[in-house]
Amino acid sequence: MSWSADGISGEQQMGVVIYAGGRFPRGRIVSPVTHKYAVGASVICPFGHRSEKGLFEVMRHLPDDGGRGLQYRLKSVTDGHERTAFEAALEIPPPLDAAS
C-alpha cells in the first residue's frame, strides 16, 4: 500500500476507503453510509402531532445533513404532497394480511 503526500491512500476496495493521518499513518477505515429504504418503498412517517402517521412512498435519497442523518424525499400516498424526513423518523409499514 502506498501513501501519498497528503496522507490519503490511493487504494479503494468495495467502497471502503483507507485514510491515514499525521506523520505516521495509523489508518482508519471509513465505510460509505447507505440508505435503509429503497426508492419506491412504502414507509410510515409521523407528521403534525406525534400521534399522527401517514403512508408515504420514497421518491429519492438525499445526502447526510451534516451528521444529523440520512434524509429521504417522500410523497404521501393519500394526497400526494411531498416532504423530507430523516431516516430515524421512518418506520416499515405492517405487512398486509393475506386473508383479507
Pick out the low-confidence regions. Answer: 1-19
How would you classify the helix and strand content by structural class?
mainly beta
Strand order of the largest sheet: 4-5-6-7
How helix-rich are the residues, as a percent range? under 10%
Shape: globular
Total of helices: 0
Rg over CA atoms: 20 Å
Total number of beta strands:
7
H/E element string? Answer: EEEEEEE
Biggest sheet record: 4 strands, antiparallel
Mean pLDDT over the full residue set: 75
Beta-strand percentage range: 35-45%
Ends apart, CA distance between termini: 59 Å
List keywords for this structure.
disordered N terminus, mainly beta, 7 strands, 100 residues, four-stranded antiparallel sheet
Q: Helices and strands in order, then pairings?
A:
Blueprint: E1 8-13, E2 16-19, E3 28-30, E4 42-46, E5 53-62, E6 71-76, E7 82-86
Antiparallel strand pairs: 1-2, 2-3, 4-5, 5-6, 6-7
Explained architecture:
This protein has strands at 8-13, 16-19, 28-30, 42-46, 53-62, 71-76, 82-86. The protein is an all-beta fold and 100 residues long. Strands 4-5-6-7 form a four-stranded antiparallel β-sheet, with no helix packed on it. The chain has a three-stranded antiparallel β-sheet with strand order 1-2-3, with no helix packed on it.
